Amino acid sequence: MIKVLIIEDDPMVAEFNKRYLDKVDGFALVDVVHTTKEAKSVLELEKVDLMLLDVFMPGGNGLELLREVRERGLAVDAILITAASDTEKIQSALRFGAIDYLIKPFEFDRFKQALLRFKEKQTIFHNSEKLSQDEIDQRLFEPEKSEMETDKSLPKGLTKNTLQVIVETIKELKNFSTDELAEHTNISRVSVRKYLVFLTELKVLEETLVYGIGRPVYQYSYKENDKVLEGYL
Description:
Elements: E1 2-7, H1 11-22, E2 27-33, H2 36-45, E3 50-53, E4 56-57, E5 60-61, H3 62-71, E6 77-82, H4 87-95, E7 100-103, H5 108-127, H6 133-151, H7 160-173, E8 175-177, H8 178-185, H9 189-201, E9 205-210, E10 217-222
Helix pairs in contact: 8-9
């Protein structure tokens, strides 16, 4: 299990991060702390593989903590989860060895993507004493490159990972509404709607407007036309 320390001063955000973490297999929560001082205490006493780290916190800065961790040579990786979106903060985080950078607010699928990337690389390191150049290129860096190239063929605002989650879910549901799909995928209704429009245009889904009590509801049915998705997934 990959042991995770959540470092977040906002209790509500910390709770969301904790709930999100519980949904991803292979990760175990060590603790949730709200200051860098508390984080240092945990790091001294507990084995931590990954920090989910905020930048702005009372009494200390997340980037300063990350820099100190690097100076001390601790074998701890970090994913920054913060509202700080200025390039200086992002560049500093990368220089200090952050493996990913999530800007609040973010959706669960992006959070899950960051953790699964980390988990995949940890598996590679733990199972191999040496790596060839081809293995480094294909197993550590090429997947991210391929993902970026695939995303370019998708409409603006859509990503491969989210599309994968939605397609897998619609195959299970077969018939559903926008709200039902949003509930099953834990993706916002607004985001889900964008993917439904895209899949309807590809003829993967058939859309029907159903009238009843209250506002009309769009109902969708899966047409099992997966060939048109080749190159997108």
